[in-house]
Write a structure and sequence with these properties.
- It is built from seven helices and three strands; from the N terminus they run H-H-H-E-H-H-E-E-H-H.
- It is mainly α and 150 residues long.
- Helix 2 crosses helix 3 and helix 3 crosses helix 5.
- The relative contact order is 0.11.
């Protein structure tokens, strides 16, 4: 690889890190969350912004693809449902920003997630679900495991 090519690779990695979708952030999120790499990229993007907009997230995740390989914008909404579920498991709530067309995390939740990523705070084993919708019934074994820790 030439020096110019290496400089370009380094710059891409630097920009990915600034956007929150770099390999370091994603790999650290994968260790603390039950989420896919793409969902971790979405969470990393949210960590770097006050409000993560649907269009901006779509551009960051799929902007480099040829037009024929880009998914529908609806995929962001579908993945956000899964992101919410993964974050709720560790006690973090995703807020919908009506009018801005996006989602956000509170400063406290961002700090908590960063602490988990850095190993300063372990993820809660049985975090309460902060969702207004009814939670699915846990299996008897999972319920017993949660109650043992109480």
């Amino acid at each position: 690889m030439s020096q110019t090519e290496q400089q370009l690779v380094d710059r891409v990695q630097e920009l990915e890190a600034l956007l929150g979708v770099g390999n370091d952030d994603v790999s650290r999120l994968l260790t603390v969350l039950d989420a896919t790499p793409q969902q971790c990229e979405m969470i990393g993007f949210m960590l770097k912004r006050a409000v993560a907009g649907r269009e901006a997230m779509f551009t960051v995740l799929f902007g480099a693809r040829p037009e024929c390989d880009k998914p529908e914008m609806k995929l962001i909404d579908v993945q956000m449902v899964k992101v919410r579920a993964a974050l709720e498991k560790v006690g973090i709530t995703v807020h919908t920003e009506w009018g801005a067309g996006g989602w956000s995390l509170t400063r406290a939740d961002k700090a908590k997630l960063r602490a988990m990523m850095e190993g300063r705070e372990p993820p809660p084993a049985c975090a309460p679900v902060a969702s207004p919708r009814p939670a699915p019934m846990p299996s008897p074994g999972a319920r017993a495991a949660c109650l043992e820790g109480v």
